[in-house]
Design brief:
alpha/beta; Arc Repressor Mutant, subunit A; Aspartate Aminotransferase, domain 2; Aspartate Aminotransferase, domain 1; 3 domains; eight-stranded mixed sheet; 16 helices; 41% helix; binds pyridoxal-5'-phosphate
Length: 480
C-alpha cells in the first residue's frame, strides 16, 4: 500500500535539520534511520522522486540526490521504469540487531592482540572502601571552581577553539613556579608539557624514547600503569627490587635505556629513595645516557615533615623527565597532568603529542591556572593534607586490633598504605573482604620478579574517620 504524504513529511521533519548539507542530508538521514529501525522494510517501494518532492516540499533535484546517495551506500536499488526500492539486504531490524548479526572476529594487529590479552590498567569509577589512589572529592571546593569556570565562559568563545599542544602558557608558568618553589625543581615554563594524564605521559615517553625490546627498569613491586605503558610500546621490563632506601640495583647489572621510579614515595611500599642512591643513580644515568622518569605522583601529601626535594633538581646532565598529575590533588576527571622535560626533548614530544589528542581542554587548563595563581591550590593542599593525615592516623589506629595478621608499613604520606598479610593468605582474605563490600587492592600482583609479599594497598584518603572505623569493623571479621 502506498504510504501517504503526511507519513513522509513526518519522517522528514523528525530527522531535524542536518548540521551541513541542508535538506538533502536531512532526507538521507530520515530515510536511512527509517530503514535501520525497520519502519521501511526490504523490498518496499519508495515514492517517485517527483512525488516525494511534492509531499515534503523540497525540489525534485534534492530527492534525486538523496536517493542517489542511498543507492551508493547500498540502502536502495533503483531500476529505470520501475522505481526505487529498499534494498533486500539493507539492514532492517534496527542498529542493535544489526550489530548482533555481524559477529566477525576482530582482526587486530599483533601489537593490538598482545595489548588486549595483557589487559589495561583501570581506576575504580565508584570506589568502595579501601580502593587505592582515590582523593576525597566531597571536600573539593566546587562552588569556587564553578565561579572560576563561569568567569571564563562569560568572556566569550575564546577558549572553545583549538589550543597550544604544549599547554596553556599561563598554566605552564603556574606549574613551573609551583614545582620550583615546592619541589626543588629547576625548570622554566618552556620545559613543561601539559597532558591529560600520567598514563599519557608514560605512553608518550615510551613512544619517543624506546625501541622494541629496549630494556626498562621498573621498581619491583611497582606501578602497573607504568609497566603497561612500556610493555605496550614493546619494551622489555626489567624488575629491580626495592629495599628501605628505595630502588636497589646491583652494580654489575647492565644499564638500561630508561628507568621509571617513584623516588619521593615508592609506589606501593612508601619509602623514599635515599640521597646516596639519588646521587649514584644520576651519575650512572649521565654516564650511560639513560633516561629517568621521576613519577612524583603524590608528594603533595606528606604528613610527617616535608618530602625530599625532587630528583630533577639534582640532575646536572638533563636526563630526568619529571612527571606530576592533578588527578590526586584536584580531581581525577579533570584529566590534567604534566611532564617537565629536558630542553632537547620538548620540541619532539610536542610534535608527537599533536598526533595523539592535540592538546588538553582549554577551559580546564585556564581554570586550573587561576586556581593556582590565586592561591586556592595552596589552601586546598593545606586542608587536604590535614584531613588525610588524620585519616591515615585513624586507619592505623583502627588496624591495631588486627596486628597479629595485618601489618601496616611505615607511610609518611600518600592516599593509601601497604599492609602485609601472612604468606599465602591474600587470595582467601581478599575474597572474604569482597563479600563484606570491601575493596582490598592486591600487593602481591604488583610484583614482577622479586619474591612476592602478600598484602593489601589500603586507600584511606577518600574515607572519613567514621567510615574508616566502620570499614575496619568489617575487615576484622574476615579473619576471626
Ligand atoms: C604511581 C602513580 N602514578 C600516577 C598515577 C596517576 O595518574 P593519572 O594522572 O594517570 O590519573 C597514579 C594513580 O594511582 C599512581 O599510583
Amino acid at each position: 500500500m502506498a504510504l501517504r504524504a503526511p507519513f513522509w513529511l513526518q519522517l522528514f521533519e523528525q530527522a531535524g535539520p542536518a548540521a551541513s548539507g541542508g535538506r538533502r542530508e536531512q532526507l538521507v538521514a530520515a530515510l536511512r534511520t527509517a530503514m535501520l529501525r525497520g519502519v521501511l522494510s526490504p523490498g518496499q517501494q519508495l515514492p517517485s522522486s517527483r512525488q516525494l518532492a511534492a509531499d515534503i516540499g523540497v525540489s525534485r533535484v534534492t530527492v534525486e540526490a538523496a536517493y542517489g546517495r542511498l543507492e551508493a551506500e547500498g540502502y536502495l536499488w533503483r531500476a529505470v521504469g520501475r522505481g526505487s526500492f529498499v534494498a533486500l539486504d539493507a539492514p532492517a531490524a534496527g542498529p542493535v540487531a544489526r550489530v548482533r548479526r555481524v559477529e566477525t572476529p576482530a582482526v587486530l594487529s599483533q601489537r593490538g592482540q598482545q595489548l588486549a590479552a595483557r589487559g589495561g590498567c583501570r581506576d575504580p569509577a565508584r570506589p568502595l572502601p579501601f580502593a587505592a589512589g582515590s582523593p576525597d572529592l566531597r571536600a573539593f571546593p566546587l562552588e569556587l571552581w564553578r565561579q572560576l569556570l563561569a568567569r571564563h565562559l562569560r568572556r566569550g568563545p575564546t577558549l572553545l577553539g583549538y589550543g597550544d599542544p604544549q599547554g596553556d602558557p599561563r598554566l605552564r608558568e603556574a606549574i613551573a613556579a609551583y614545582l620550583n618553589a615546592a619541589r626543588g625543581l629547576r625548570c622554566t615554563a618552556d620545559q613543561v608539557l601539559v597532558l591529560s594524564s600520567s598514563q599519557q605521559a608514560l605512553q608518550l615517553a615510551a613512544l619517543m624514547l624506546l625501541d622494541a625490546d629496549d630494556p626498562v627498569w621498573l621498581e619491583d613491586p611497582g606501578y602497573r600503569g607504568a609497566a603497561s605503558a612500556f610493555e605496550a610500546a614493546g619494551a622489555r621490563r626489567v624488575a629491580v627490587p626495592v629495599d628501605a632506601e628505595g630502588l636497589s640495583w646491583s652494580p654489575d647489572q647492565p644499564w638500561p635505556k630508561l628507568i621509571y621510579l617513584t623516588p619521593s614515595h615508592q609506589y606501593p611500599l612508601g619509602m623514599a629513595l635515599s640521597l646516596r642512591r639519588r646521587r649514584a643513580l644520576l651519575a650512572q644515568a649521565a654516564q650511560h645516557r639513560t633516561w629517568i622518569i621521576e613519577d612524583d605522583y603524590d608528594s603533595e601529601f606528606h604528613y610527617d615533615g616535608k618530602p625530599m626535594p625532587a630528583l630533577q633538581g639534582l640532575d646536572e646532565a638533563g636526563r630526568v623527565l619529571y612527571l606530576g598529575t592533578f588527578s590526586k590533588v584536584l580531581f581525577p576527571s579533570l584529566r590534567l597532568a604534566y611532564m617537565v622535560l629536558p630542553a632537547a626533548l620538548v620540541g619532539p614530544f610536542v610534535e608527537a603529542r599533536t598526533t595523539q589528542d592535540g592538546h588538553s581542554p582549554q577551559l580546564a587548563q585556564a581554570v586550573t591556572a587561576d586556581f593556582i595563581t590565586a592561591g586556592h591550590f595552596a589552601a586546598h593542599l593545606r586542608l587536604m593534607r590535614r584531613l588525610y593525615a588524620q585519616r591515615r592516623d585513624a586507619l592505623l589506629e583502627a588496624l591495631r586490633p588486627m596486628a597479629d595478621w595485618l601489618q601496616p608499613q611505615p607511610s609518611p604520606g600518600g592516599l593509601q598504605l601497604a599492609a602485609l598479610l601472612p604468606e599465602g593468605e591474600e587470595p582467601a582474605l581478599s575474597r572474604a573482604a569482597a563479600a563484606r563490600g570491601l575493596e582490598t587492592p592486591s600487593l602481591s600482583r604488583l610484583y614482577g620478579g622479586a619474591p612476592r609479599r602478600d598484602g593489601w594497598i589500603l586507600g584511606y584518603a577518600a574515607l572519613t574517620p567514621g567510615e574508616i572505623a566502620e570499614a575496619c569493623q568489617q575487615l576484622r571479621q574476615v579473619r576471626l
